[in-house]
Specification:
- The complex is a heterodimer of chains A (430) and B (131).
- Chain A is an alpha+beta fold.
- Helices cover 50% and strands 18% of the residues of chain A.
- In chain A, the strands form three sheets. A five-stranded antiparallel sheet of chain A has the order 2-1-5-4-3, with helices on both faces.
- Chain A starts with a helix and ends with a helix.
- In chain A, helix 8 packs antiparallel against helix 9.
- Chain B has 131 residues and is of the alpha/beta class.
- Helix content of chain B is 45%, strand content 18%.
- Chain B contains five helices and five strands; from the N terminus they run E-H-E-H-E-H-E-H-E-H.
- Chain B has helices at residues 12-24, 35-45, 61-68, 89-100, 116-130, and strands at 4-8, 28-32, 49-52, 81-85, 108-111.
- In chain B, helix 2 (35-45) packs parallel to helix 3 (61-68).
- The chains are: A alpha+beta (430), B alpha/beta (131).
- Chains A and B meet through helix 5 and helix 6 of A and helix 1 and helix 4 of B.
């Protein structure tokens, strides 16, 4: 019981007052309560070799309360946890510097071990100007007071360590954030530098084609056209690789916010029209409203749908059709992009989400990364993506669907709203 | 008199390609290899149109935008600007808005590699609109 009460007091007072204030109060109250001349509180150094002064009450500056008073054996006895009472400093053989210890009229000194969790953390000394005797019960009580001091110290250290750990974690996080920022800026630099020469070369080729078309035969013209296309492919590959790295690095999480499906799908469908109509492919939609709000990256979801549409356009002949549908399915929203194009061969279907996988390895078009990027985006939203070819109840074509769970978004959503408000304020200040 | 176009890009080959393209159409070309040079030539030559790359040494394209908003550049702040860069449009806009709190006020945004016809059309529609 004694121990538990001490623990309880220790946690509440440390929280309320700060450790030095609490120990000062402890030292003062004990001095007054025992009618002592003064009291000092010393703590053991981290290596357990020295006693360091922490708080003193009632003693004059000249008194050696910061120094060692006892001889080694006696001091060690206290540090093993046994309280010790020097009745008369003048004659007690355990006192090391008798004259010094008597300064200011000190006659008796009580040495109380400061314990916490069975470990000695210091010594509390009570100085008296007359011979002071304690009975067993009094000494035991003083021992408890010293123990309270020890536990208060322990608690304060625990709190300090927690604070330090938290600070360290904060620093780690900042460092990781920093490294990620560096990495991303490095990536965009690399992308820029890889693309620049291609832009220049392609620029000359386009000029050449424009200005010299009459001078070149058909094969040469065709060769230059192909060169331009190959460079386009190369640049697309660089962009896709950058995109994959961005998705991998988790940078995209900062784009998450509540997404209104109507807005997002509306924009994606509009872009799908722009993409497919020049190729003579029609786009139809079937959106089952209402769709629940989800916590997601709007840009990435649009990119995902467009990637699927652009794949469909590539494999659907003129006059074909692309159908975009969206509906709620239990706790998810399912979006499908279906075409009536040439479809995917059954043995190739399981591989379509793999990096650099191309159905036709000879094809110059596409980087083989489009569907991997789609998969990353879906993973980021804890969703699922799958492909069917031909689509259910159809003869030809392909259907790729993804589902994004509505999930536990409300909680994050609210946190985001808080953050968003903060962010908005920042922008206003700018 | 031929319309004057300032072309700022740090890639000499891009400068060469676009110069050939635009000079063939009868435009007067002034070129700059970085943003600082571009700002100097804007004051000196008062071009009718600026074709501006964004990623350049010394002063980048964003810096040119900032400078043109300053009082010292008031006479030139109305010159239409075509951005011609490999940076995606939404990325540039987000960056500029985050850094300055303002919208980037350009007449057209073309992502590299731009199609020659598209660039020519954009240039002629902007210059034609002014006459």
């Amino acid at each position: 019981m004694r121990h538990r009460i001490i623990q309880e007091i220790a946690s509440s007072v440390v929280a309320a007052g700060g450790v030095d204030n609490v120990i000062r109060a402890l030292v003062e109250s004990t001095t007054l309560g025992t009618e002592a001349k003064g009291c000092s509180f010393l703590t053991l150094s981290a290596d357990n070799r020295h006693l360091l002064h922490r708080i003193t009450y009632g003693m004059s500056e000249e008194y050696p309360y910061t120094q060692q008073i006892l001889k080694r054996e006696a001091k060690e006895q206290v540090l093993k946890g046994t309280p010790l009472l020097v009745l008369d400093v003048k004659s007690d053989p355990r006192v090391r510097y008798k004259e010094e210890a008597q300064k200011g009229g000190v006659v008796s000194i009580a040495f109380l071990p400061v314990r916490a969790r069975y470990k000695i953390r210091g010594v509390m000394r009570l100085y008296f100007s007359e011979k002071k005797k304690f009975d067993r019960e009094e000494l035991d009580f003083l021992d408890s007071i010293a123990e309270l001091g020890g536990i208060i110290l322990q608690r304060a250290e625990d709190q300090d360590r927690l604070a330090r750990d938290a600070e360290e974690a904060r620093r780690d996080l900042a460092r990781i954030r920093d490294e990620r920022r560096h990495f991303l800026s490095f990536l965009s630099m690399v992308t820029h530098d890889l693309k620049s020469p291609l832009v220049a070369v392609q620029g000359y080729l386009k000029l050449l084609l424009r200005k010299s078309v009459d001078l070149l035969d058909e094969r040469m013209t065709n060769g230059i056209r192909r060169s331009i296309q190959r460079i386009d492919g190369m640049m697309e590959l660089i962009s896709d690789l950058l995109e994959l790295s961005r998705l991998e690095s988790g940078q995209v999480v900062s784009e998450f916010k509540p997404v209104l499906w109507d807005d997002m799908l509306g924009a994606a469908v509009e872009m799908a029209h722009e993409l497919s109509e020049p190729k003579g492919v029609a786009v139809t939609t079937e959106i089952h409203r209402p769709l629940p709000e989800i916590f997601a990256s709007e840009i990435r979801l649009q990119q995902l749908i467009l990637n699927l549409v652009s794949n469909s356009v590539r494999f659907t002949p003129r006059g074909g059709n692309i159908h975009i549908s969206a509906r709620r399915d239990e706790d998810s929203v399912v979006v499908c992009v279906e075409d009536n194009g040439e479809g995917i061969e059954p043995d190739k279907l399981p591989h379509v989400f793999e990096e650099f996988y191309k159905g036709d390895p000879e094809s110059v078009e596409g980087t083989g990364l489009g569907l991997s990027i789609c998969k990353r985006i879906v993973d980021m939203h804890h969703g699922r993506i799958w492909a069917e070819s031909p689509p259910p109840h159809k003869e030809t074509g392909t259907r790729v669907c993804f589902s994004i769970p509505v999930g536990v978004t409300c909680h994050i959503e609210e946190r985001w709203k808080l953050k968003e408000n903060g962010g908005r304020n920042n922008v206003d200040i700018l | 008199m031929a319309e004057k176009i300032l072309l700022a890009d740090d890639d000499p080959d891009v400068i060469e390609v676009i110069s050939i393209l635009l000079e063939d159409e009868g435009y007067d070309l002034i070129t700059a290899g970085d943003g600082a040079e571009a700002l100097e030539k804007i004051k000196l030559e008062s071009p009718d149109l600026i074709v501006l790359d964004l990623l350049m040494p010394l002063v980048d394209g964003f810096g040119v935008f900032n400078a043109l908003r300053e009082p010292g550049y008031e006479p030139w702040s109305g010159i239409p600007i075509i951005i011609l860069t490999s940076v995606r449009e939404e990325v540039s806009n987000r960056r500029y808005e985050l850094e300055t709190g303002h919208r980037m006020d350009y007449a057209a945004y073309l992502e590299k590699p731009a199609d020659p016809d598209e660039l020519l059309e954009t240039v002629s529609s902007l210059l034609g609109g002014r006459d």
